[in-house]
Automatic annotation (TrEMBL):
<dbReference type="Pfam" id="PF00591">
    <property type="entry name" value="Glycos_transf_3"/>
</dbReference>
<feature type="domain" description="Glycosyl transferase family 3">
    <location>
        <begin position="110"/>
        <end position="279"/>
    </location>
</feature>
<keyword id="KW-0328">Glycosyltransferase</keyword>
<dbReference type="GO" id="GO:0005829">
    <property type="term" value="C:cytosol"/>
</dbReference>
<dbReference type="GO" id="GO:0004048">
    <property type="term" value="F:anthranilate phosphoribosyltransferase activity"/>
</dbReference>
<feature type="domain" description="Glycosyl transferase family 3">
    <location>
        <begin position="311"/>
        <end position="415"/>
    </location>
</feature>
<keyword id="KW-0808">Transferase</keyword>
<dbReference type="InterPro" id="IPR000312">
    <property type="entry name" value="Glycosyl_Trfase_fam3"/>
</dbReference>
<dbReference type="InterPro" id="IPR035902">
    <property type="entry name" value="Nuc_phospho_transferase"/>
</dbReference>
<dbReference type="InterPro" id="IPR005940">
    <property type="entry name" value="Anthranilate_Pribosyl_Tfrase"/>
</dbReference>
<dbReference type="GO" id="GO:0000162">
    <property type="term" value="P:L-tryptophan biosynthetic process"/>
</dbReference>
<protein>
    <recommendedName>
        <fullName>Glycosyl transferase family 3 domain-containing protein</fullName>
    </recommendedName>
</protein>
Length: 428
């Protein structure tokens, strides 16, 4: 990559050789590697690519379908996270330990639930609502933004909460540890944590096509290193195994990638949902803390086998697995302005909807799944009531997830966590 002086103080870099190899792969002596794409991609966040070359890179990744390659997605998302605003890890770790949320196989780490968007179904803000409802049991780090492909994005609906919304712009990397000293819930507003995205905002808007950035959002959580479990919804079936592989390459051990049969980036309330689950299992290559002779095992090798790894399992889920009825997507259609969706969200949290409301069931499905994937449903005892030990698809306790999700609403604990978040952000 050749450097040249740009209009400002920074040197811009020419990636013309890489662009040519992407444009004419049959003529290239060496095929383009994911690491090369990620290195060029990182220049965007450093503001070292010209507008023309940024546009060319995004367009070629789209036309060659390199933006659907698991290794490319994994490595580009890593570069995006590396360019994010730095969070003081010791302070955040201390705040997380202080919350002391442990139950079953959940170790008290952060959790996220997010979708790629772009499924054209315009359903209710399910993942945002689910992230709040799960927060009495889980430390939630919901990563989101304003609407990109719908009328009401996750940040839009939170900003429309009445009478007092959270002050999302106030929650910066520096303030995040303070939030978790006060509440289990945090919403990480993407522009606050990814300032480098401004360098490509105009390019994305003027291109008018979906680019790799539309896929990276779910994997760009700036506290990815502290995420214990997550659900990622994808808008097309072909993306399911791609995202599962990308998550594995990134070291994720607890995740559920979902895509409704209708190409919905949520767990569908209307019928089956295809699932790709990363399940944490013991690593057979891990030697353990003791050798066969009973001596302590030590190593200075950074690549030494970890205690656990993830195993990929594929299965289908349906509302019946959760003990819930099906509802056509037309009954959970949103297509409404943020204010209306915010009112519905608050009605759910205040337990004002009837028990068989379609949107409530839709939200319960997805909240339950996050609780299940975290491992919190594996505890055989729970202070909130009798544990439902029945197992369904993938060998998981989906009905116990619903029981816990209902308790979070009916007890008022989910609403309490959101109220604490609102108060905290407005006090900054």
């Amino acid at each position: 990559m050749a450097s040249r002086e740009g209009d400002g103080a920074k040197k811009t870099v020419s990636i013309s050789p890489l662009l040519k190899r992407l444009a004419y792969p049959s003529a290239a002596e060496i095929q383009v590697q994911a690491s090369e794409i990620a290195s060029a991609f990182a220049l965007i966040f450093e503001d070292r690519l010209s507008v023309v070359q940024s546009t060319a890179l995004l367009t070629l990744l789209h036309s060659t379908r390199k933006d659907k390659d698991a290794a490319v997605i994994a490595q580009c998302s890593q570069r995006m996270r590396e360019a994010a605003s730095k969070i003081k890890r010791p302070a955040l770790r201390e705040a997380i330990r202080g919350r002391n949320l442990r139950l079953g196989q959940y170790r008290g780490g952060l959790c996220d639930i997010v979708g790629t968007g772009g499924d054209s179904h315009s359903t209710f803000n399910v993942s945002t609502t689910a992230s709040i409802i799960a927060s009495p049991f889980l430390l939630t780090a919901k990563h989101g933004n304003r609407a990109q492909t719908s009328m009401s994005g996750s940040a839009d609906v939170l900003n429309a909460i009445s009478p007092k919304p959270p002050k999302l712009s106030a929650l910066t990397a520096e303030k995040l540890p303070q939030i978790y000293r006060l509440t289990n819930y945090a919403f990480l507003f993407a522009p606050n944590f990814h300032p480098g995205m401004e360098n490509v905002a105009c390019v994305r808007r003027d291109l008018g096509i979906r680019t790799i950035f539309n896929l990276l959002g779910p994997l760009a959580n700036p506290v990815d290193w502290a995420i214990e479990a997550r659900i990622v919804g994808v808008a097309y079936q072909e993306l399911g195994p791609v995202f599962a592989e990308a998550l594995q390459l990134s070291g994720t051990k607890k995740a559920l990638v979902v895509c409704g049969a209708e190409d919905l980036d949520e767990i569908s309330c209307a019928g089956p949902t295809n699932c790709w689950m990363l399940k944490e299992v013991p690593n057979p290559k891990y030697r353990g803390p003791m050798t066969e002779d009973g001596e302590e095992y030590t190593t200075s090798d950074d690549d030494a086998p970890s205690r656990t790894i993830s195993r990929l399992e594929k299965f289908q889920l349906s509302p019946v697995d959760f003990g819930l009825p099906t509802h056509p997507l037309s009954e959970v259609y949103s297509g409404k302005m943020p204010k209306e969706n915010a009112a519905k969200l608050m009605s759910i949290l205040r337990n004002e909807l009837r028990p068989d409301d379609p949107i409530l069931d839709f939200v319960l499905l997805n909240t339950a799944a996050l609780l299940v994937i975290s491992g919190v449903c594996e505890g055989d005892e729970c202070k909130t009531g009798r544990v439902v030990k029945e197992r369904g698809a993938g060998g998981q306790r989906w009905k116990e997830g619903v029981r816990k999700a209902r308790w979070c609403i009916e007890s008022g604990q989910a609403l309490l966590q959101l109220e604490k978040f609102v108060e905290a952000t407005n006090s900054f």
